[in-house]
Amino acid sequence: MEVSINWLAMLGFALGIAACLRWVFYDISAFTSRPKLVISHGPFTINWQSIDTDETRRFVHLEAVSKRGTARQCSAKAKIIKHPPGMTPLQEEFPLHWADTPYSTVSTEAEAVDIKDKAKRLDIAFTTSHLSGQSWLAIPLALTVPDKVPQASLPPGEYTLEVTISCENGRGDSRLIKVISMPDWEGLEVEKA
């Protein structure tokens, strides 16, 4: 018995397999070459003195960098995982402010930033020398008028926060931290959870 081989069909089959392999390889290489945001340092506390007023603020912050290129439109949020007894959060997630980035005085939304391989500081919580008694999450409106933003207030006690950073063209990172809000503004502390 003689078998007839259709060389044209075999060529089509081989080209189809090659196209599929190229497509799979392209997807894998595109995925592995995307930027990856990494929380590189922190959490830390720092004091910052305003050059315009006599106010000093104490900030809890982390630093993030991008591995493999520029991470575009990076944003961050904090979720309260654990809070002191008797305290009821007014909302669950809060957009956080990237340091050295302008913020609106009428919005609770934070500006997105592009991050490269140089560390970018993310403000998470703060206190102010003008208003002792509690801390606030670093959302833009709270940075402007902390005593007018009750949803961002952190009365004295220990809070466990999940901080998540993300970008539109890559992968993000997250970290659990413990923020200790004290009645004295200089007492604000942070540690890894």
Question: What do you see in this structure?
Answer:
There is one protein chain. The chain has helices at residues 7-32, 140-144; strands at residues 36-49, 56-67, 71-82, 93-95, 97-98, 113-115, 120-128, 131-137, 153-154, 157-166, 173-181, 189-192. It is of the alpha+beta class and 193 residues long. It has one domain (35-192). A hairpin with a 7-residue loop joins strand 11 and strand 12. The longest helix is centred in the first third of the chain and has 26 residues, at 7-32. The model has no long low-confidence stretch (mean pLDDT 85).
List its traits:
alpha+beta, 193 residues, elongated
Instruction: Provide the structure class.
Output: alpha+beta
Task: Name the shape in a single word.
Answer: elongated
What's the rounded overall pLDDT mean?
Answer: 85
Helix content range: 10-25%
Low-confidence stretches: none
User: Rg to the nearest angstrom?
Assistant: 24 Å
**How many structural units, i.e. domains?**
1
Helix tally?
2
Q: How many beta-strand runs?
A: 12
Instruction: Please report which band the strand proportion falls in: under 5%, 5-15%, 15-25%, 25-35%, 35-45% or over 45%.
Output: over 45%
Note the gap between the termini: 75 Å
- Please provide the ordered H/E string of secondary-structure elements: HEEEEEEEEHEEEE
Largest sheet: 6 strands, antiparallel
